[in-house]
Amino acid sequence: MDAKNVNRTSLKRLSNYKNVLYKLKALGFVKVFSDNLGDAIGVSAAQVRSDLSKFGITSGNKKGGYSIDELLDNVKETLGKDEIQKVIVVGCGKMGNAIMNYSGFPVEGMRIVAGFDTNPTMVSSNERIPIYCLDEMERIVSEEKVRVAIMTVPESAAAQVFDLVQRAGIKGVLNFAPLQLRSTETCLVNNINIALELESMFYMVKYSLTRPLS
Amino acid sequence: MDAKNVNRTSLKRLSNYKNVLYKLKALGFVKVFSDNLGDAIGVSAAQVRSDLSKFGITSGNKKGGYSIDELLDNVKETLGKDEIQKVIVVGCGKMGNAIMNYSGFPVEGMRIVAGFDTNPTMVSSNERIPIYCLDEMERIVSEEKVRVAIMTVPESAAAQVFDLVQRAGIKGVLNFAPLQLRSTETCLVNNINIALELESMFYMVKYSLTRPLS
């Protein structure tokens, strides 16, 4: 598999398959068919097989289905779930706090290890996750070997905080600040701009589109 | 322009251009070149021109640039900014609250008119936005002529709340619940799953990709 030839949509579907597999496993299932996986996330069985083979996952066959355990191992390995994936949250205002308390993270693997804020004593934190001052970021990131950060700072602070985050050694940022940040040579950025997402939705509703834009 | 042939990426760029145009206008600028717009959001000038012409916006030329006022009017009309865009937030927990207090919404046009929760008296609301019981949704949506909702409910409530939202007459949903909802014939869904976005980021960092996946 060439990781560069993977697109974001099929990568997200792979994460989705993984979540479905966990649920099926919890129900005691041992085998699953591509039709089932497709039904669960709303795509065709052919799409499921094409996605899996794109990631080099070829265990299982049309007739006998996939072994859930085996498929789960393969998907987890592809997604990097063999290691624990640590995240920091930079900016512990309402949005940062909501993310630190978000219940949608998978139970295993992914873990928010620290929050950072200009004024950590003012933050009403949940007790599970320690909150530090921004200037401790480099130390914590290095000690905890963190590579990914979620940025939830105000627009006015975003550019400056992005510098800090990169200097601390972070390689990937999920940015919720309304300022569009650009990936650098050492740090990838995925901007999640809620206002832009809403605007797209208004557009689709205005023109009565019957399916989401690709 | 055929609204269906527009893709999500160019639509988001259009929103981005609009934001840049507002900022330039605030600085007293009258004209702008496609190079400037491109630089501001990190794409080529040719991309800017192609995006604008895709949306049927052809005012302006390579040599003289675009009139900011005229371009802004065109972009706003395309995005449906001639009308006020009302939104409701369904689920007023930490995430819903963070969104109701989000500072990244554009000053004009977009407005959160109400929040809904199973237990509105328990919610610590900001005072600008009234919070109602779920069973008042149909009335408010109809009175306020709201067509778009943001769903920030727990995974366990998502499917049921999605039914309610549709019955209330909502045509587009931005879903933050970790349950992947599917668009129906009458209601479009855009799922924003923070865990999946993080997982994509881990993947990209793991394989040291140097630019975001398309």
The largest pleated sheet of chain A is described as: 6 strands, parallel
Q: What fold name goes in the CATH topology slot of the largest domain in chain A? A: Rossmann fold
What percent of the residues of chain A sit in helical stretches (DSSP H or I)?
Answer: 40-55%
Distance between the termini of chain A: 24 Å
Structural class of chain A: alpha/beta
Fold and architecture overview:
2 copies of one chain form a homodimer. Chain A has helices at residues 8-26, 34-41, 45-54, 68-79, 94-100, 137-144, 155-167, 194-206, and strands at 31-32, 66-67, 85-90, 110-117, 131-133, 148-151, 172-175, 188-191. By secondary structure, chain A is α/β, with parallel strands linked by helices. Chain A has 2 domains: 3-78, Arc Repressor Mutant, subunit A (Orthogonal Bundle), CATH 1.10.10.10; 85-196, NAD(P)-binding Rossmann-like Domain (Rossmann fold, 3-Layer(aba) Sandwich). In chain A, the strands form 2 sheets. A 6-stranded parallel β-sheet of chain A has the order 5-4-3-6-7-8, sandwiched between helices. In chain A, α1 packs antiparallel against α4. Chains A and B meet through α1, α5, β7, β8 and α8 of A and α1, α5, β7, β8 and α8 of B.
